[in-house]
Amino acid sequence: MTIHAYAAREQGGEFKPFEYDPGELAPDEVDIEVEACGICHSDLSVWKNEWGNAAYPFVGGHEVAGRVAAVGSSVKHVKEGQRVGLGWFARSCMGCDACLAGDHNLCPERQDTILGRFGGFADRVRCHWAWAIPLPEKVESLAAGPLFCGGITVFNPIVQYNVLPTDRVGVVGIGGLGHMALQFFDKWGCDVTAFTSSPDKADEARSFGADRIVSSREDSDLESIAGTLDMILVTANASLNWDLYIQALRPKGKLHIVGAVLEPIPVSVFSLLMGQKSISSTPLGSPATTRTMLDFCARHDIAPQVETFPMSRINEAFAHLESGKARYRIVLTRDD
């Protein structure tokens, strides 16, 4: 079998048609026929080798929505023709302590869909069956892909840290991740504060569920909400005035970071110690948590706001993402 894809053959290089043979389908694997695939900022980071772990040719794409095209002999719970999604993780060992505890996303032997493998910027992509997550009927394929990276990245902390409907939470960065975080927290029942450096996003942030808007550029605005929030979710990948965000937390509050901040975060222990505050982070979520997120989206009509490009215009789509103009997730669709 030949898979037709788009690959960059060098760091930051143009995506061009690329073909490869995936080899024989393993007993526990499935092939997914790609109908739509989101472009995440992580795709851009790997494409440019910002994390130092890229390999070329690079076939990105880890926000896949499609249908199961082939199943291995020992595959369970998914079948040919079924609508599924695939995110950052393509495989976990299923036998380590983390996997047996249900934390497959923490498996030390997990494999990433676009690192050491070829991803979803293609007509097909392959993964372990447990990571091919069935899509609820009410979740449309066109918008589903971004839920499998950006969506689960901001939903997983709600589950992991037992966020309550009575909590007051903040979301830093109203972009690809942040606009979904606002929807999740709002439908969860929380009082939601949106932090943004772009005043023109205020009305949209309110439409996504923000109860109030705070400028992330004005220290005085941050100082005015000191001691008011139970959790602040940082979806931006920029350096911030970390001390002021910690001051905004209530006792036992959490500063939770899911944006890929590249620089070290300087924090005084005493800013945490006296209020029993903490700084934490999480990587996406397990298959079970992803299923829960999808059910929650179906129940509350939560979906990412997307812009679409045909797969053949992938270079134009990446340029649009890099310009910072995307509102708010870019999805590549199969060319007719």
Explain this structure to me?
It is a single chain. The chain folds into 2 domains: 3-149 and 285-333, Quinone Oxidoreductase, Chain A, domain 1; 152-281, Rossmann fold. The protein is 25% helix and 27% strand. The protein contains 11 helices and 17 strands. The strands form 4 sheets. Strands 3, 4, 5, 8, 9, 16 and 17 form a 7-stranded mixed sheet that branches. It has a 6-stranded parallel sheet with strand order 12-11-10-13-14-15. The mean pLDDT is 96.
Main attributes?
2 domains; Quinone Oxidoreductase, Chain A, domain 1; 11 helices; alpha/beta; seven-stranded mixed sheet; six-stranded parallel sheet; 336 residues; Rossmann fold; 17 strands; 25% helix
C-alpha Rg (nearest Å):
20 Å
Number of helices: 11
The domain tally reads: 2
Q: Regions with pLDDT < 50 over 5+ consecutive residues?
A: none
Shape: globular
Q: Based on DSSP secondary structure assignment, what is the total number of beta strands?
A: 17
Short summary:
25% of the residues lie in helices and 27% in strands.
Secondary structure layout plus pairing:
Layout: E1 3-8, E2 15-20, E3 29-39, H1 41-47, E4 64-71, E5 83-86, E6 89-91, H2 97-100, E7 111-112, E8 124-128, E9 133-134, H3 141-144, H4 150-160, E10 168-172, H5 178-188, E11 191-196, H6 202-208, E12 212-215, H7 219-223, E13 229-234, H8 242-247, E14 249-257, H9 269-273, E15 278-281, H10 287-300, E16 306-310, H11 314-322, E17 329-333
Parallel strand pairs: 10-11, 10-13, 11-12, 13-14, 14-15, 16-17
Antiparallel strand pairs: 1-2, 3-4, 3-8, 3-17, 4-5, 5-9, 6-7
Helix pairs in contact: 4-5
